[in-house]
Amino acid sequence: MKFAKIAIPDLTAALHQRGFSYMRRDGRGWMRFAGELRLKAKNYPCELAVSPGLDEFPRVWLTPVPPGRPELQPHLSGDGYLCYLALGSVIFDFFDPIRQTMACLDRAEQVLEDILAGKMVEDLAEEFHITWGRDWCMLDVDERRPGSLDAYTFGGKTSIVTDDRARTHAKLETIGLDLPKVKLPAFRVRTKARPMPLQESWPPKTMQAFLKWQNTLDSTCRKKIEQRLMEMFRVKVPRVLVLIDSPQVQYGVAVTLKRDPAGTDNKSSLREILYRLPIHRILVCRIDDRYLAERNLPGSKTLAGLKVGLVGCGTIGGYLAEMLAKAGAGTIGGKLTLVDMGSLEPGNLGRHRLGFDALIKKKAEAMCDELRRVAPGIDAAAVVGDVKAANMGPLDLLIDATGEQGLTDWLTWKYADKVPFLSAWVEGSGLAVRALLKAKPEHACARCVSQPPLRDPYRVFDVPPEVIMKGHGCEGLYVPFPASASVQAAALAMEMVQAWLDGADSPSFRTRVLDQSREVHFKDCSPQRYEGCPACAT
After folding, report:
1. DSSP-derived secondary structure for 38-75
2. Annotation marks residue 83 as catalytic
């Protein structure tokens, strides 16, 4: 960057005016400056590191760390590193590095002021995972309930806990791993207390220190942990994994239940021996289906546990099937049924979710295979054949992604009075995408808004576009539009599924216009049923 060559001397001069002097460049080329953070009571010596490209936030270390402080303080590491900004919370303006650097120093001074005044102790809870440990335990447990579980170790410091060996095996298999043969018992204890690191003697190194810390958080939780460990000690369990299920974060410890650790004698009780045992601190990362579905929309409902039918695994249905799976469809006792009688043909490849490896395969079956790859353990069933003769079983939601008006009308007539029914399609040659949900008897169906007298009031554009067809010979006629239109139709449908799950009072008929050059006639709304509609009128 040309401006950087000019800005570096200017930045050095600006820092000099603030009392900072240039020291050296470190091994990464960052420029190091020595100076002070100016607080109300006194100044604290520090070292400032500036990136060579002036395109990152500067780093700050206290030199030395203030004496007499607690062992653990928020945003201040043991080597004096001061975390004055949360990564990703602010964008560094590299076009104005001087002003930006001065603002960072101001922020660092304010954060240090608050730290030393004891105003940011609660932030330690947010930094718990940083101070607890580096080894991980993968948790694949569908239900967040306390009790005994099976844990497996990979031979190193990584482990996995499961309540369904087959499901977990399928997940590991997709990433080239196998479920280890070495099994150890694990148990889970629930608490409402957030883990707050201590400011002294942290982190705990023995079971006694761990239990003492747990007692400060939740005495009931501590009692349960100690009771279970004593029971396992008495029956000579060699090693056990303890998992703590707390709000927002799960963590644990592994302990080897030795009866003769160093420093014990024959007169020591089992409890005294237990207290002296060293612990291995473990962070827990969830890989269960419920978490994967809920993480991106915390507080919102998912499709987990519901029975969902998707008719049409073509250009819209392929993308939509994956979105449904990532929203929890087919998990936690639910089921995702895909219905399509066609095969993936060469002409489909340009705008289909499936690729060349699925060529000439039945779309429904190939899409189920793909879903099991991206969401191992999903209960996805393929129905290859005419939907009019298919038995999809009981459903909580039915989705039509065929884009075929005649079939949509039949599905409406057959199912719309029994189950919430969503239709999604591409308008014309990719000019717009539309979706309509009929979840209430009084709402219009797709046929209501596509036929007189409601057709004209609910058309997309002031001037209806001409329908353009392409194709010849053996490939037949088709409507040309890009894959991006299919993706947006699927996304609009998924948006409406989420609104339905959350019980939101939102428009049942929605449109997203892709051709902005045309005059738009339609606005999202909830049209009322046409009483003369043969598909949905009663």
Report:
1. E-SS-EEEEEEEE-TTS-SPPEEEESSPPTT--S-BTT
2. yes
Q: Cα-atom radius of gyration of the chain, to the nearest Å?
A: 31
pTM of the model: 0.79
CATH number, domain 296-513, options 3.40.50.720, 3.30.70.260, 3.40.50.300, 3.10.28.20: 3.40.50.720
Burial class (CB in 10 A: 0-12, 13-18, 19+), 333: exposed
User: pLDDT (tens digit, 9 = 90+) per residue, 210-250?
Assistant: 999 999 889 999 999 999 999 998 998 999 999 999 887 88
Nearest C-alpha neighbor of 423 from the set 491, 485, 479, 493 = 493
Helices (H), 135-287: 165-174, 207-217, 219-234, 270-276
46: tokens are 């520090």
Cis (ω within 30 of 0) for the bond into 64? yes
Please state the φ and ψ torsions of residue 168, each to the nearest 5 degrees: -65, -40
Q: Of the listed 46, 104, 221, 445, which one is catalytic?
A: 445
The 8-class DSSP code of residue 358 comes to G
- Each domain of the chain, given as residue ranges in start order, spans 2-126, 131-287, 296-513
CATH of domain 2-126: 3.10.110
Is-catalytic flag, 474? no
The active-site residue out of 137, 313, 448, 533 is 448
Which residues, 6+ apart, have CB-to-CB distance to 313 below 8 Å? 321, 338, 339, 340, 342, 363, 364, 367, 401
